[in-house]
Every structure is written in C-alpha cells, then in structure tokens.
Amino acid sequence: MIDWFNYAAGNHRVTCPACGRGDRDRTLGLTIEAAGNGVSHCFRCEYTESHRPDRGTWIGSSVKPLITVTASIKHARLRTNCPKLGWRSL
Ligand SMILES: [Zn+2]
Q1: Predicted TM-score (pTM) above 0.85
Q2: What is the pLDDT of residue 1?
C-alpha cells in the first residue's frame, strides 16, 4: 500500500508495492491532484492504486467505471430538476 499522505500534489515516481525491488526501483507513476485525490499505475506489473480523502485507498482500476456511472446519475437528476418548459413560460 502507498502512504498517500507522504506526497504533495503533483507527479511522483515511487517504488511499486507489488513488484518494487527497492527504494531505487521506481516503476510506479503517482499523480496527486490539488484536492487530494490520487491515482498510481505501475509501468511494469500494471498494479494500480487509488486514493481519495473521502473514500480512502483501494487497489485496482475497477473504480473508474463506477465514477462515470455516478456522474451520469447526477446529470440525469439535474435534468429532471430543471424543467425547461417552466423556465420558458416566465
Ligand atoms: Zn509493479
């Protein structure tokens, strides 16, 4: 597991927790956004790990589709809350 709180926002190269052979073996690309969300991907073994301040840390990339689904649900809800016909009649 990556100790996400050790890193500032930006791009880093760190040792892969899955295949890393030591401190100098940095195959894991790590990106941290200003908001604190982070994603990492190992160029050698395809290991991925993600971190979000509100959701914690998880291993694997299966979360990406989940985020897309959540976003589309929010979008649909917004549409139903904004009836264009009512707005036009004003
Ligand atoms: Zn690796």
Answers
A1: no
A2: 87
What is the distance in A from the centroid of ligand 1 to the CA of 68?
Answer: 26
Q: How far is CA 54 from CA 30, 41, 46, in A?
A: 19, 21, 25
- Residue-wise pLDDT tens digits, 27-76: 999 999 999 999 999 999 999 999 999 999 999 865 444 444 444 555 55
Question: For residue 52, how far is its CA from the centre of ligand 1 (angstroms)?
Answer: 21
**d(CA 38, ligand 1 centre) in Å:** 17
What the block records as the tokens of 9 is 């926002």
Provide the residue ranges of all domains of the chain, joining segments of one domain with +.
4-89
Expressed in angstroms and rounded, the spacing between residue 15 Cα and the centre of ligand 1 is 8
